[in-house]
Amino acid sequence: MKKTFTFLVLLSLVFASCRTKELATPIERQFPGTDEILRLSTEADPDLKGQDIYFNDFEIINAKQEGQWLVFETVYSGGCESHYFLANWDGRMMKSLPPQANIVVVHQHKSDLCRERITKKWAIDVRPFFERDESEVVVNLMSSDKNTIKIRLVAVE
């Protein structure tokens, strides 16, 4: 009798837990409204061989920190071909006060004859910059040597 009762209680708990998962509200997005999240590639030299890569054909604008995210916009021309962006950080912090890190944003695409002006909003998770217990970091967000934006980031708990 006790075994049957215990079995029924366990069975009802299993079904009850399954039902609560279905009724649970979805997790809210914890990043700002952006077109896409760029994952930080930590390779010193990303493997982009055989790709059409264009470094100087876009501009980075409006960079700022929103919580744990570095949010910025890119402006480029195109519209007929697919365009891909990559954020690359070599994992090094420059010795300065506050420490600095370089993020190079790479724009990949095939030759695009369209001339539409496209603006996209991106986000990068900044938590890796604070793994060394820094309270503040300056990030040099670069699309080329001529287009560098400095953003002062503060640690977010």
Fraction of residues in β-strands: 35-45%
Class by SSE composition: mainly beta
Order of helices and strands: HEEEEEEEEEE
**Share in helix:** 10-25%
Give the biggest sheet: 6 strands, mixed
On the 0-100 scale, what is the average pLDDT?
78
CATH class: Mainly Beta
**What's the β-strand tally?**
10
How does the overall form come out from the CA principal axes? flat
Number of domains: 1
Give the distance, in angstroms, between the N- and C-terminal Cα atoms.
52 Å
Poorly predicted ranges = 17-29
Give the helix tally: 1
Radius of gyration (CA) equals 23 Å
CATH topology, what is it called?
Answer: Immunoglobulin-like
Level-2 CATH architecture = Sandwich
Q: In terms of topology, how is this protein built?
A:
Elements: H1 2-23, E1 36-37, E2 40-41, E3 53-54, E4 58-66, E5 69-78, E6 83-88, E7 100-109, E8 116-125, E9 136-142, E10 148-154
Parallel strand pairs: 1-8, 2-6, 7-9
Antiparallel strand pairs: 3-7, 4-5, 5-8, 6-7, 9-10
Label this structure with key terms.
about 160 residues, four-stranded mixed β-sheet, about 15% helix, mainly beta, about 40% strand, 1 helix, Immunoglobulin-like
Give a quick precis of the structure.
Helix content is 14%, strand content 41%. The protein is mainly beta.
